[in-house]
Target: Hydrogenase maturation factor HypA
Amino acid sequence: MHEMSLAEGIVQILESEAQKQQFTRVKEVCLEVGDLAGVELDALEFSFDVVTRQTLAEGCSLAIESVPGSAYCFDCAVEVPLARRGQPCPKCAGYSLQVVGGTQMRVKSLEVE
Ligand SMILES: [Zn+2]
Model:
């Protein structure tokens, strides 16, 4: 389950931020997750609960904002919305698409003390 390693990556980010910014507790983490990032949100929430035990983020809440996917259509020469990979262009129904947005996962903000 790759959500477990994603959750571990988040905890590493939190720990290095804690050193830089001198905080000791994380109360809330706000994550941005792209619709095309291939992340199962339920699995990520579960993994996050598990990996934050005994860490500075134990018991902290996880807020997830999803970011819509988008792709560039070479036939239409415009950027179009894309709900998931493998779907055709919503304008021309073609498949000359390159995914350009909604693939990332990042920590957007933290509430700390
Ligand atoms: Zn198109």
